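Tokens in:
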């Protein structure tokens, strides 16, 4: 608490002198609200969590209550289980993001980073399986196993060996770029009815990634590049789950035609 007061006092003095804010221990100084270290980032993380929950629930209702089911009560959509896992990992990631930005300590930072890496790793697996239309379980395991091993090893490295920010940024950016490229190529080659939504998410995601790499002092002590990235994620997430629902309808319709 004393350190925070000292930082804010020093920053107020620098502002009066016309100097720009500086980082302390590698982080920009933020204005707290009721003890919350980054109130805007926390609020936007909570909104993202709510949007992810809404998207996941709407997908669940669609595939189990609105679309036809197989005689064994399973869905015709072959990727239902994968999207359920994705939804759970996404909500978990945003939860720990909110916690970390509320109170940044070693434990919450590791949980935030680990959750984000787990989400990106699984998203990459899901991207490959969906875009290459992998439906055979054995093939899915062969593709997923090495990627899961890599992601698990990276998470263990961050938690038990070194919290390497530079390495983690490279790994996460790499997984994001690969996913965006795969989805972009697939959207260009596909006749999917909702590919315009996918294109919007891909372009928006790419721009958001560039924004995330642009570092600047928090405006008025509240809004920095990371918070703006949180903001861009909200409409993109809403559109993304809309695409997932359309994909479920598209694939279910195709499967029903084959059955008939």
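Residues out:
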């Amino acid at each position: 608490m004393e350190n925070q007061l000292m930082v804010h006092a020093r920053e107020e003095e620098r502002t009066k002198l016309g100097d720009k804010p500086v980082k302390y221990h590698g982080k920009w100084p933020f204005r707290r609200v009721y003890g919350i270290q980054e109130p805007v980032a926390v609020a936007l993380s909570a909104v993202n969590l709510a949007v992810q929950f809404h998207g996941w629930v709407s997908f669940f209702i669609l595939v189990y209550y609105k679309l036809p089911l197989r005689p064994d009560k399973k869905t015709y959509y072959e990727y239902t289980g994968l999207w359920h896992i994705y939804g759970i990992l996404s909500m978990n990631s945003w939860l720990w993001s909110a916690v970390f930005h509320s109170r940044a300590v070693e434990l919450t930072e590791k949980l935030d980073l680990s959750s984000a890496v787990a989400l990106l790793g699984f998203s990459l697996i899901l991207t490959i399986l969906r875009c290459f239309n992998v439906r055979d379980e054995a093939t899915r395991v062969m593709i997923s196993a090495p990627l899961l091993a890599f992601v698990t090893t990276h998470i263990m490295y961050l938690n038990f060996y070194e919290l390497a920010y530079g390495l983690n940024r490279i790994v996460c950016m790499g997984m994001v770029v690969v996913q965006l490229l795969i989805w972009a190529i697939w959207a260009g080659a596909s006749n999917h009815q909702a590919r315009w939504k996918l294109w919007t998410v891909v372009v928006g995601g790419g721009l958001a990634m560039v924004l995330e790499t642009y570092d600047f002092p928090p405006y008025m002590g509240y809004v920095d590049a990371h918070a703006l990235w949180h903001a861009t994620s909200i409409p993109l997430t809403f559109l993304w789950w809309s695409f997932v629902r359309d994909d479920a309808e598209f694939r279910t319709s195709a499967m029903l035609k084959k059955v008939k």
